[in-house]
Write a structure and sequence with these properties.
mainly beta, 3 domains
Length: about 350
């Protein structure tokens, strides 16, 4: 109850923080959101989205006979958070006290802008879900664009894989990611990305941890992602909503490849996997993904499709010999180790269409 009340209060304060500067004439609304500040080489825009629900519930328990008899006369079995006095001994039904309050289902705050110069931009995006008050960091990156052809991004950003993933979910009518992109490939990850554009051709290469957002790297290798895209004469707007109608048709086609190498995970031995007798630790392996995608937007039709194939290989080292020494790092005999390999393949084809 306290979390829900605090969540509602945070939502009200955030809305007020945006509304007051605008009413005072210090902020203006534009296509990038709410312009909080602007200078010759500095700008700050903010988006805020919130989903607030009001819940009202009453839990009721129906029974007949003695309440203690129904529980086998064992008072310790009573798992309810309220007293079991005389009110439960003979009544036919009982209701818990009514519970009601606000629940902040989801809230997202986005800050974007430029700093120092026009070629240096940044983005910070955080979100809270499920009625809690803790904000989770989604995006936190800085982009350097020394020319129209080259761009360098570092921080925590979206992995350049997945046609639907690269679109902003809050602009989509049906924000759904494929199971492969959601559970196999980290949607966001800390790392470094290089982009190159030449006419209608766009190439991206990213090196990331491969362990997901807001987490420490759990293995000794990194994730490599390559993406190649060819657009039509009018380009392709990834920020456009599904139900939007561009004035001119937009086309994109391309492919992407991701290789998430999983090095040995035992950090105690700096990459040497020494499990105890009869136990298992993860050795080298990889999660590899290939995507072919196509997108089309016009006045009367929007068609997006993505085909992905994933291969998950996991080489496990199993110690069947004597217990190894993690402190000294003495290697275990080769005869005491077995190598087992898991190989799983997954194909996903996703189509999204709007008319």
């Amino acid at each position: 109850m306290m979390q829900r009340s605090m969540g509602a209060l945070l939502a009200i304060l955030a809305i007020g923080a945006m509304a007051l500067p605008s009413l005072a004439g210090e902020a203006t609304a534009n296509e990038e959101g709410l312009r909080i500040a602007e200078g010759e080489h500095f700008s700050l825009d903010m988006h805020f989205f919130a989903e607030l629900a009001f819940n009202r519930s009453r839990d009721q328990l129906d029974y007949s006979g003695s309440f203690y008899g129904w529980l086998g006369n064992n008072e310790e079995e009573i798992a309810f958070p309220y007293s079991t006095g005389d009110a439960f001994s003979s009544a036919a039904s009982t209701s818990w006290p009514q519970e009601q309050g606000f629940n902040l289902q989801r809230a997202r705050v986005i800050l974007t802008g430029k700093a120092v110069a026009d070629w240096l931009t940044f983005r910070i995006e955080s979100e809270t879900r499920g009625g809690g008050t803790d904000m989770e960091l989604l995006d936190a990156w800085v982009r350097i664009e020394p020319s129209e052809q080259w761009a360098l991004t570092f921080g925590q950003f979206k992995t350049p894989f997945g046609l639907f993933q690269l679109q902003r979910s809050w602009r989509q009518l049906l924000p759904t990611l494929s199971p492969a992109t959601r559970y196999i490939s980290p949607e966001r990850d800390p790392g470094l990305q290089v982009e190159w554009r030449r006419g209608r051709f766009h190439a991206q290469a990213a090196i990331q941890n491969g362990s997901g957002r807001n987490t420490l790297d759990t293995d000794t290798d990194q994730q490599l992602t390559l993406r190649f895209e060819l657009t039509g004469p009018n380009g392709f707007d990834y920020d456009a909503p599904l139900y939007g109608r561009p004035e001119e048709e937009q086309v994109t086609v391309g492919a992407a490849f991701v290789k998430n190498s999983l090095g040995i995970i035992d950090a105690q031995t700096r990459g040497i996997c020494l499990p105890a007798s009869g136990s298992t630790c993860t050795g080298s392996g990889s999660r590899d993904g290939l995507e072919l995608f196509f997108g089309y937007r016009a006045d009367a039709l929007t068609l997006l499709t993505s085909w992905q194939k994933w291969t998950y290989e996991n080489n496990r080292l199993i110690n069947v010999g004597p217990e190894a020494d993690h402190v000294t790092g003495i290697p275990i005999p080769a005869s005491a180790v077995q190598l087992r390999q898991d190989d799983q393949d997954l194909e996903v084809w996703q189509i999204e269409m709007g008319m």
